[in-house]
Each structure stands twice: as structure tokens, then as C-alpha cells.
Design a protein that fits this description.
Glucose Oxidase, domain 1, 306 residues, Rossmann fold, alpha/beta, 8-stranded mixed beta sheet
């Protein structure tokens, strides 16, 4: 069973870190103030405001910020400011055993996908494919906050992950499987293939989402995941949205799913709202879930915090 981090409560301290691309200081400070208005204390990583080009700071500096948050006993949750690119470069500098001994809530999506899956894979820690600092703002829909806090601030179990009422989950291959859930952004996962941090899908339920990639690129990603055995190893498949993904050669995102994944005959649902879409379901990486693609339900069957 994976390690559950301690639950988050009002008055707790949240540590902010920039682990990939830089983010404007005004946006960071605005998000920090929003968290304070919700009743949390905020501390900043040393390099949270750094801007060194494509990435905010060196890999060692960004990794040190993350490790310092895990080592700080006053910090209950670690929140990435944004994704962007370059998160995977910090992985060789992390001490996964120290992280295992100091479990905390950590949340993110996009390029954070490779981190949150590695923390589960190497530290056995449940992490959250959910909100980043850029999502803590007035414009964020209540659905996203409800999902986030139900996953991180309650012991509710079982928890059914439901799309907003006007967005239906759809089954393409019926079935019923239970296992740990892993996955996230396709770009991030494919970039890690062939490295020590390649995702392990053996006996897992794999979910995927993407943004701003034409369907020619999605075709490449899905083919690479197929040829590396990731779909063959998994128990079932959940496909999220592909936001702002242009159609290429008259072939849509749905066409690719039907042509490449349906023939595998693994339990398969599509249209989960998480990641880059407007609505963001909170997916607990490493937690046991039940995927019932006959009834179109996704249920987290254990508490994800302690």
C-alpha cells in the first residue's frame, strides 16, 4: 500500500516551488495571497522567483528547493507554481528515501507529471495530479477546488471521481478493474521513456491527457507508448481531454483512440476532465481505484491522506 501524506487543514503551511519554467513574480505573489485568503500560511522556495531562461534555475537549485520543503517540518503541502518544461532534470538530484520518510502532499500536472509519478514509483508516496499555484485564483471553477480539497483535506472513502454534470464520461471498452492509478500528461511521460524515471504501468490503471499538440504528435506519443509496452502492461486505460489540439490529415483525437487503443480490449473510458482542461478532477497517483467502464465510474477506494 502506498504512503498517504498527512491531510491539509486551514492554518497549515504551504511551500511554493518553481520546478520547471519560470513564472512572473506578480502571478506568484497573487497566488500566494489567494492561498492566504483561504486561511493558509505560505513559504517560498529560495528559487521560486528565479528566471534563468527555459528553466527557472539550475536543476540542482530547483531540486534543493523541493528537498528543503520535504525536510521542513512546518510545511504540510508542496505546491508547484507551474509546469512548463524541464521538471525531469531535477530527478537525479532528489533523495527518494528522505522523501519516503517525510511524506507531504504534493500537487501538480502538466510537466509535473514526471515528478508526481516518480515520487510514487521511487518513494511509494501518493501524490496528486491536481492544482498548481496558477490555479489558485478567482476564475477557477468551484468544481476544481472541491475536487482538490476532497482529495487532500478529507478522509472520505470511497470517493467517486465525477466529471461536471454537463460533461459525460464515455466507455469505449467495457470492463471492471482495480489497481493503483498512474499517468498524466503525454508529453511528460513520453519524454521520460528510456530514462531511469520511465513510468511503470505494470498492473496499473493508466490515464493520459494532453494539450496544444496536433493529432500527428498525439499519434507519435501513443505509438511510442504502445511500442514501449505501456498499454500492454496496464490493467485499464483512462483518456482525458486533449485541449487545443488541432486536427491533422482529417484524423481527430477520438479517431486515434479508436484506432490505436480500442483494439487492445482493455477497459477504456474517455473524456475525463483533468489536467489542462477548464475542469480539473483530482487524481491521486498511486492510490487504488476501481475503473468500471461498464457503468462509466471511476472510484478511489481508499483515503488518499491520513
Amino acid at each position: 500500500m502506498a504512503i498517504r501524506p498527512p491531510l491539509l487543514q486551514r492554518g497549515d503551511t504551504i511551500g511554493l516551488v518553481t520546478l520547471g519554467s519560470p513564472l512572473d513574480a506578480i502571478i506568484i505573489n497573487t497566488g500566494a495571497q489567494f492561498l492566504r485568503s483561504m486561511g493558509f500560511n505560505v513559504v517560498f522556495g529560495r528559487h521560486v522567483f528565479s528566471s534563468g531562461g527555459i528553466v527557472a534555475a539550475s536543476a540542482q537549485q530547483r531540486a534543493d528547493d523541493l528537498m528543503n520543503m520535504f525536510l521542513d517540518p512546518s510545511v504540510k503541502m508542496i505546491l508547484a507554481t507551474r509546469g512548463g518544461t524541464g521538471v525531469q532534470t531535477i530527478l537525479p538530484y532528489l533523495n527518494f528515501e528522505v522523501i519516503r520518510q517525510s511524506p507531504k502532499i504534493i500537487s501538480g500536472y502538466s510537466d509535473l507529471t514526471v515528478l508526481i509519478n516518480s515520487l510514487y514509483q521511487f518513494s511509494n508516496l501518493i501524490t496528486f495530479h491536481s492544482l498548481m499555484l496558477i490555479d489558485f485564483r478567482l476564475e477557477t471553477p468551484a468544481y476544481n477546488f472541491n475536487q482538490f480539497f476532497e482529495a487532500t483535506s478529507t478522509l472520505n472513502s470511497p470517493r467517486i471521481i465525477q466529471n461536471p454534470p454537463d460533461v459525460a464520461l464515455r466507455s469505449l471498452v467495457p470492463g471492471n478493474v482495480t489497481g493503483p492509478i498512474v499517468g498524466g500528461n503525454m508529453t511528460s511521460l513520453v519524454n521520460a521513456l528510456g530514462t531511469p524515471y520511465e513510468i511503470n504501468t505494470q498492473g496499473k490503471i493508466l490515464f493520459l491527457e494532453e494539450t496544444h499538440s496536433p493529432t500527428t504528435m498525439i499519434f507519435r506519443y501513443l505509438t511510442q507508448l504502445l511500442m514501449s509496452g505501456k498499454f500492454q502492461d496496464c490493467l485499464g486505460i483512462i483518456i482525458g481531454e486533449c485541449t487545443n489540439c488541432p486536427v491533422s490529415y482529417g484524423t481527430t483525437y477520438d479517431d486515434l483512440i479508436n484506432n490505436l487503443l480500442v483494439p487492445l480490449r482493455k477497459p477504456l473510458i474517455i473524456n475525463l476532465t483533468t489536467g489542462h482542461g477548464f475542469y480539473k478532477a483530482a487524481i491521486p497517483i498511486g492510490a487504488n481505484v476501481n475503473l468500471n467502464s461498464t457503468d462509466n465510474t471511476l472510484t478511489v477506494i481508499e483515503p488518499t491522506v491520513s
